[in-house]
UniProtKB/TrEMBL annotation:
This is Transcriptional regulator. It comes from the Bacteria. PROSITE patterns: HTH_CROC1. One of its GO terms (molecular function) is DNA binding.
Length: 93
């Protein structure tokens, strides 16, 4: 079987195990974008480019009209723990 086929079979097995509550799973506590932004002392206008999106798109996150993707949630976690490092990395260009 091809590598893709092997990977597909393995991933389906992992999905079934996860659905049964078996096997390792990484679960991150949900973060509220507004709460993270407020703790970082940023405005919505400042936060939107950090998250790589438009101001209106960011506002939709805070209003619950859009869901956070995995990478966005990871960036929020980084901003929660190291706001200055994130600012330096993303806003110094």
């Amino acid at each position: 079987m091809s590598t893709f086929g092997d990977d597909l079979i393995q991933s389906l097995g992992e999905a079934v195990a996860h659905a049964k509550g078996e096997g390792p799973a990484v679960v991150h506590a949900p973060l509220e974008p507004k709460a993270v932004r407020m703790r970082a002392k940023l405005t919505q206008k400042q936060m939107a480019p950090i998250m790589g999106m438009s101001l209106s798109g960011y506002r939709k996150w805070e209003q619950g009209q859009r869901r956070l993707s995995g990478p966005a949630a990871a960036l929020l976690q980084m901003l929660e723990k190291e706001p200055e490092a994130v600012r330096r990395a993303l806003l110094s260009a």
